[in-house]
Specification:
The complex is a heterodimer.
Chain A (H helix, E strand, L loop, with lengths): L1 H26 L5 H11 L4 H12 L14 H25 L3 H9 L4 H11 L1 H16 L3 H7 L9 H10 L3 H34 L1
Helix pairs in contact in A: 1-4, 1-7, 2-4, 3-4, 3-8, 4-7, 4-8, 5-6, 7-10, 9-10
Chain B lengths: L3 E11 L2 E12 L3 E6 L5 H9 L6 E6 L2 E2 L5 E4 L10 H6 L8 H14 L15 H13 L5 E5 L7 H16 L3 E6 L11 E6 L2 E4 L1
Helix pairs in contact in B: 3-4, 4-5
Classes of the chains: A mainly alpha, B alpha/beta.
Chain lengths: 209, 208
Amino acid sequence: MVSFRVSLTALFISLPLALLAGFALSFWRFPGHWIVVTLNNTLLAIPTVVIGLILVLLLSRSGPFGDLRLLFTQPAMIIGQILICFPLLVAMLHAAYQGVSRHAWETARSLGCSRLYTLWLITLEVRFAVLAAVVMAFGRIVAEVGCAMMVGGNIAGYTRTITTSIALETTKGEYVQGIALGIVLLTLALVLNVIVGVSRGRSIQSVTQ
Amino acid sequence: MSHLLEAWKLEQQFDGKRLWQIEQLTWRQGESIHLVGVNGSGKTTLMKVLSGLIQPTHGKLLLDNRQLKVGTCCYLHQHPYMFDKRVVDNLRLVAIKGVSRQAREERIKEALSWAGLEHKAHQQARTLSGGERQRLAMARAWLLRPAFWLLDEPAANLDTDAVEQLVALIRSLQEQGAGILLSSHQTTALSAICEQRWVLSNGQLLHY
């Protein structure tokens, strides 16, 4: 399943970097901090088709990265989806980490924990917010069509995702097929969210016991 | 071996404004000091600096003639942070180095017993009372056997029984030879257990 393979890969690559970025923005005050936050929040509004356009310019034969021959491949789609979900993850994780007292950092460091282990402990403190951010980011990239169409090229069996299929079927006038594919996408998203919901429920249960 | 914490020309500034300046400071392991100062005098900042959590704006801070590293001197917050875990798991997160898993679990059991929290081991740490939270915070730090303890207003908002239990733990630390620095903005039941007094006033540290 191209849609899920591409989106999950993009998510798994983005998440660790976004965790670090969100954490740094919350716990580290540096000159230009607000500029970084403002720029990141602005990127949330960027249309996916614009990201697709920029990537096409960069990856096309005449572009600076043309030699990599990535255009119309799954890695190009993954890069596009990383660019789409990264700002969203950073914004949500920044907000999540801001909810954690600075005392958590000081306590763990005072107890001899390394910086990386402290980051892990604090991430566990906001695990449900991290989960929500992941679900939201996944929803955004699995449902996007503009970038996938432009950098993937909608090649059957290789870069054709459910959303680009829907777009294709619609242009052919095959509305029923398009709706059926939409239902498939929603059902798969529902299954994924049920899995996340059940694991979250179990986690809450273990906390309250 | 008795450890020694020394500082020279320590200065802390916030937004370019000087909070305090300390010409010289010596704290030997085994000494118990009561740090007094009005609210906003910079007691908490001084304690965090002495624990290595905050870098001073200026000055030198050495533990046994070596650069002080965070985690060597244990700082405990006025309102201890409890991780969203069970009591025993709050103890398990402490980075005890160079001990086997079994020895580590033994030490955790010991710490629970020392703090009188054995019966609360599997309870969520955030459901503990104020006094129990203080004791759990002390038990966490105790696992590392630090030579110096910095207790920031540990008795604030605690009832008499909880203060008595806290005093017992601090006395036990004194018997074990630890250096204690505890702060408060007024004289409390804890003042009596300290033989020295530091007063932070108008940006200066006075020794008594």
